[in-house]
């Protein structure tokens, strides 16, 4: 490629095309390699881009020269670039956005990642006479801090407590009062591995099968009830991979990444875990990225975006709770990290292990079609048995603000026995809305097709979709009646009610409102583990992965609305949620009990799930999907449009539909334009085309030209639109 002079550059702009630029000097052509970052002029702006190809000529006249090359080595290796190109095409996303989503923001900004220096500071002497520093209060402050920490402090820690610490510490170093040392990375010996647990026969069987396939691509579902010891199997396998000096990636759900999990992995594998999740700042993310690339990180535990880390020698990918929705990116570059992980494992000829107690229907069909292997763990690893589940028929029972007497009674028994109780309600706030008792007016958001949630403490109404807040009216805006009623229950209302009934009991609420502050969730979970609270009330944040050994009773307050949803996946989601919540009960040797309140005790889904289990339920539900030609038996795609006027979205989608149907494509059905489930959100109308296809490949082949045609439509510039391939939620 050395005589190529045209560089094809991907830029972080929401446009599907790539951009041609000229190399600055023909002499240095081998300095331009695919995967290097460049700075270019783009219209009025200077942008950072990435070279994605080189060629001799361009059809475009008068090309600009690039301004500079930023790297002397490609940032991504060939395999990772190929993965990103594939993902851009599969998900029909602009290549620049895909490439840049995989870069840490430090690199996106055109800067470089400095390896973490691990520098730390300590006093050279303990006999510092304060007179020496009389007129330097900041220096005094640092000396005091270091006196209290004789083992030394890192710059991060000093930075937290002292402003303009850098110049201050320099002054102290110049006075030879403080010395700077570089700490070595933690060595393996810093983590004393614990003796592995003796695997039971089911675990051993699963492990043996997996162990023999470590050097080939192999996608395997580890289907095991909650607490059956899936994590132990992952860890045994990871141990072997580390022995071969390769890296291991654990992908976990957004809120499944708990300190307990990281600690458990470190103890078991005797190696430091590097983490990547949305709570990290830019420099921490950059360090994780670099650690993966230099293989300093042997074990990475991360949420979805970790699938794009530039591992130098990856040997295994584990996806825990593979059914979890948080593996799907919902904004910008819409990808599914689980599916990308499978592609990546195939590329690298390594195994990928999908673990779940409630496998997604997609994965189950892949097992049925023998694309994926399946290994089963049928019983809990510890002595505990699976909890008993009882339905409480709410139609006949008297109840107080959503809590049946039977449930209140059961809570009392457990509290008296010093056990913990977990109550699940997937609705935050005090009440889902307020209602006028005289004219049936309900408080709705003026910008969304949604009701406003009532927050009692602040006396406001809040829309959970556009975050708009309003004061609560004193009288009905429609008929002026003062008889306004708080309708239904949210977690705050249940918390208040319980505190009233159990006034001496410590109660904690875990939902998005109560865990907004940094580390709040972490701290609260730790307090629950310490046994500080006896009653825990929470939303689905609590349903995942957390192991609360003292919880003996789980109460499920209201899941009936999940049985009415128009999304064809709602029942799958509800079943997964129920099984996961039920799995929180009786995790140790204490027997667990679950009480499920419902107004629909005869509902076939509830009964099938509870009497026959998730596996039978999914077999039946899959049959229905097949009969209706719904995913996973067909592939699905959404073309979504948003605009301030409904007619604009409709016209655009009609046009787009005609562009797709102009040539008939086998096995393709297009529905719409239809309004989105929430027809209006934050003042914008939302509509969509829903495309189903039985021939994925044919669709894929036509998708690019469809997108190209849509992009050229004048209407496409007047609405906001995007394509979502394999959507998991109807929005
Ligand atoms: P899962 O990942 O399937 O939810 P875990 O691996 O977390 O299950 O195991 C659940 C509990 O059982 C943990 O406390 C774990 O330490 C314990 N456990 C797992 N395997 C064994 C085993 N072979 N022997 C004894 N205890 C085990
Ligand atoms: Zn009214
Ligand atoms: Zn709103």
Description:
The protein has 731 residues and is α/β, with parallel strands linked by helices. It has 5 domains: 6-108, 3-Layer(aba) Sandwich (GIY-YIG endonuclease); 118-183; 201-377, 3-Layer(aba) Sandwich (Rossmann fold), CATH 3.40.50; 388-431 and 488-623, Rossmann fold (3-Layer(aba) Sandwich); 635-725, Alpha-Beta Plaits. The protein is 31% helix and 23% strand. The chain has 20 helices and 32 strands. Strands 11-12-10-13-14-9-15 form a 7-stranded parallel β-sheet, sandwiched between helices. A 6-stranded parallel β-sheet has the order 16-28-27-19-26-25, sandwiched between helices. A 5-stranded antiparallel β-sheet has the order 2-1-4-3-5. The two termini are 46 Å apart. Bound molecules: adenosine-5'-diphosphate (ADP) and zinc ion (ZN) (2 copies).
Main features:
about 30% helix, single chain, 7-stranded parallel β-sheet, about 725 residues, 32 strands, 5 domains, 6-stranded parallel β-sheet, 20 helices, GIY-YIG endonuclease, binds adenosine-5'-diphosphate, Rossmann fold, alpha/beta, binds zinc ion
**CATH class category label of the largest domain:** Alpha Beta
Give the integer mean of the pLDDT values: 89
What's the total count of β strands?
32
CATH architecture heading of the largest domain: 3-Layer(aba) Sandwich
- State the shape: globular
- Give me the number of helical elements: 20
Main-sheet strand order equals 11-12-10-13-14-9-15
Give the low-confidence spans: none
Fourth-level CATH superfamily of the largest domain: P-loop containing nucleotide triphosphate hydrolases
Distance between the termini: 46 Å
- CATH topology-level name of the largest domain: Rossmann fold
Largest sheet: 7 strands, parallel
Percent of residues in β-strands: 15-25%
Q: What is Rg?
A: 29 Å
Give the proportion of residues in helices.
Answer: 25-40%
Ligand types: adenosine-5'-diphosphate, zinc ion
Structural class: alpha/beta
The tally of structural domains comes to 5
């Amino acid at each position: 490629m050395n005589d190529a002079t045209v560089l094809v550059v991907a830029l972080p702009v929401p446009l599907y095309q790539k951009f041609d630029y000229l190399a600055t000097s023909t002499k240095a052509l081998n300095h331009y390699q695919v995967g290097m970052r460049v700075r270019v002029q783009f219209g009025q702006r200077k942008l950072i881009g990435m070279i994605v190809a080189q060629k001799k000529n361009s059809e475009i006249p008068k090309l600009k020269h690039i301004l500079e090359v930023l790297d002397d080595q490609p940032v991504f290796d060939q395999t990772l670039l190929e993965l990103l190109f594939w993902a851009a095409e599969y998900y029909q996303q602009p290549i620049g956005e895909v490439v840049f989503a995989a870069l840490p923001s430090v690199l996106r900004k055109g800067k470089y990642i400095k390896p973490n220096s691990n520098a730390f500071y300590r006093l050279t002497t303990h006999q510092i006479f304060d007179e020496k520093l009389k007129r330097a209060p900041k220096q005094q402050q640092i000396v005091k801090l270091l006196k209290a920490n004789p083992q030394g402090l890192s710059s991060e820690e000093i930075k937290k407590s002292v402003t303009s610490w850098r110049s201050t510490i320099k002054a102290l170093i110049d006075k030879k009062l403080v010395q700077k040392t570089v700490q070595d990375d933690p060595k393996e010996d810093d983590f004393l591995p614990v003796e592995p647990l003796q695997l039971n026969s089911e675990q051993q069987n699963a492990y043996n099968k997996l162990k023999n396939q470590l050097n080939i691509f192999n996608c395997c579902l580890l289907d095991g009830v909650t607490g059956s010891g899936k994590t132990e199997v992952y860890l045994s396998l990871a141990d072997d991979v580390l022995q071969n000096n390769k890296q291991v990636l654990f992908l976990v759900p957004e809120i499944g990444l708990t300190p307990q999990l990281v600690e458990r992995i470190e103890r078991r594998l005797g190696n430091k875990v590097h983490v990547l999740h949305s709570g990290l700042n830019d420099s921490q993310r950059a360090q994780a990225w670099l650690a993966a690339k230099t293989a300093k990180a042997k074990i990475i535990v991360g949420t979805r975006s970790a699938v794009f880390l530039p591992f130098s020698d990856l040997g295994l990918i584990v996806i825990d709770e593979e059914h979890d929705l948080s593996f799907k990116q919902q904004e910008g570059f819409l990808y599914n990290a689980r599916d990308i992980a499978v592609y990546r494992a195939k590329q690298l000829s390594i195994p990928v292990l999908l673990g779940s107690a409630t496998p997604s229907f997609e994965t189950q069909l892949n097992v049925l079609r023998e694309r994926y292997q399946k290994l089963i763990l049928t019983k809990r690893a510890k002595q505990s048995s699976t909890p008993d589940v009882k339905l409480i028929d709410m139609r006949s029972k008297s109840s107080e603000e959503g809590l049946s007497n039977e449930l209140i009674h059961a809570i009392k028994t457990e509290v008296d026995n010093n056990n913990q109780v977990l109550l699940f309600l997937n609705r935050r706030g005090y009440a889902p809305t307020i209602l006028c008792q005289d004219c049936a007016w309900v408080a709705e958001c003026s910008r969304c097709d949604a009701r406003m949630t009532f927050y009692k403490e602040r006396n406001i109404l809040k829309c959970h979709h556009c975050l708009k807040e309003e004061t609560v009216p004193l009288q009905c805006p429609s008929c002026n009646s003062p008889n306004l009623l708080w309708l239904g229950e949210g977690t705050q209302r249940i918390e208040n009610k319980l505190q009233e009934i159990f006034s001496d009991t410590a109660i904690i609420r875990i939902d998005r409102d109560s865990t907004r502050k940094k580390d709040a969730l972490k701290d609260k979970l730790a307090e629950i583990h310490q046994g500080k609270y006896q009653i825990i009330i929470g939303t689905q944040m609590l349903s995942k992965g957390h192991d609360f050994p003292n919880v003996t009773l789980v109460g499920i307050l209201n899941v009936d609305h999940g049985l009415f949803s128009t999304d064809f996946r709602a029942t799958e989601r509800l079943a997964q949620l129920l099984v996961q919540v039920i799995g929180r009960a009786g995790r140790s040797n204490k027997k667990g009990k679950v009480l499920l309140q419902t107004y629909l005790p005869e509902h076939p889904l509830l009964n099938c799930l509870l009497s026959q289990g998730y596996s039978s339920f999914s077999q039946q539900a899959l049959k229905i999907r097949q009969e209706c030609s719904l995913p996973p038996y067909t592939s699905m795609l959404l073309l979504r449009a948003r605009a301030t006027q409904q007619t604009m979205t409709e016209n655009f989608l009609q046009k787009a539909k005609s562009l797709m149907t102009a040539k008939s494509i086998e096995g393709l059905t297009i529905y719409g334009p239809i309004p989105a489930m929430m027809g209006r959100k934050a003042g914008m109308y939302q509509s969509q085309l829903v495309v189903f296809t039985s021939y994925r490949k044919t669709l894929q082949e036509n998708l690019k030209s469809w997108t190209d045609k849509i992009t050229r439509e004048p209407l496409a510039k007047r609405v906001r639109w995007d394509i979502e391939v394999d959507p998991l939620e109807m929005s």
